[in-house]
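Inverse folding, one chain.
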């Protein structure tokens, strides 16, 4: 077979399929193989061109972003250098002038008006100053202003105000400490009429939750509550839960209890924790 024979040419395909069924499919595939190869080549070249353009665009954008970031960084560095130079050139006196420190205001009640008491001293006429006015004894008796080494009339004449202000003591109000609640005392709280009366009150006033009744929920809820000094029921909490609805009903029932006989310690009524089991039981269920 010659090397220059084109196996995909139509003439060669006619020779190979001479006398055979050309409609079967292999003949069509063979004569169209050159067209398929050409399409594949064209699509490959186009794909490579698209990829190359995309990569080139991406690299151009990244280069532009990097250039902008470098430019912005240079501008910021330049501004920081200029600000540092200005801060070094600005004198410290000007900086101190810009910082205005508020002067503490003196309360007028802290300063009394005073009248200068001039000591008698024999001097020559030319040595006496005009402001050294000597006040007579009558003037000093009539005034209620305090005596001092100088004249001062910008304060107050009320000495009691100054004295009360200087002696003022700020007393912080202490919050009352919570009263202690005992768990066991010499004489525990008692329900009027005893435990039998307590059980009767519970059975007469209990309201079985409808949802729990429909679902057949029952059990014993154990609650604790504080019997205060005056016998009333204080804080109530569940220490053994059965069901949320049953717990709520047990808490409501405890809060509706009448006053107890309060517990006592050393003869004094005190707050005491009281534990009470409340049983929820449906008839016909074990």
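Residues assigned per position:
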């Amino acid at each position: 077979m010659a090397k220059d024979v084109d196996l995909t040419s139509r003439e060669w395909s006619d020779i190979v399929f001479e006398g055979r069924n050309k409609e079967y499919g292999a003949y069509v595939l063979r004569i169209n193989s050159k067209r398929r190869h050409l399409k594949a080549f064209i699509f490959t070249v186009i794909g490579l061109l698209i990829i190359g353009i995309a990569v080139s665009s991406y690299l151009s954008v990244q280069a532009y972003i990097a250039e902008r970031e470098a430019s912005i960084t240079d501008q910021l560095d330049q501004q920081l250098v200029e600000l540092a130079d200005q801060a070094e050139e600005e004198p410290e006196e000007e900086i101190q002038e810009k910082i205005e420190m508020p002067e503490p205001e003196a309360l007028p009640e802290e300063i009394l008006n005073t009248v200068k008491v001039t000591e008698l001293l024999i001097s020559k006429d030319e040595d006496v100053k005009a402001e050294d006015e000597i006040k007579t004894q009558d003037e000093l008796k009539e005034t209620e202003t305090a005596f001092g080494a100088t004249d001062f009339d910008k304060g107050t004449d009320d000495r009691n105000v100054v004295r009360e202000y200087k002696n003022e003591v700020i007393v912080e109000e202490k919050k009352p400490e919570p009263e202690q609640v005992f768990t066991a005392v010499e004489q525990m709280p008692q329900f009027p009429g005893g435990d039998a009366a307590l059980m009767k009150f519970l059975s007469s006033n209990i309201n079985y939750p409808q949802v729990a009744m429909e679902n057949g929920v029952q059990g014993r809820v154990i609650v604790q509550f504080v019997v205060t000094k005056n016998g009333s029921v204080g804080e109530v909490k569940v220490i053994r839960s059965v069901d949320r609805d049953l717990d709520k009903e047990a808490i409501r029932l405890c809060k509706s209890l009448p006053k107890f006989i309060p517990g006592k310690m050393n003869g004094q009524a005190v707050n005491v924790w009281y534990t009470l089991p409340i049983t929820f039981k449906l008839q016909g269920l074990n």
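The chain has a mean pLDDT of 76. Residues 45 and 171 are 93 Å apart (CA to CA).
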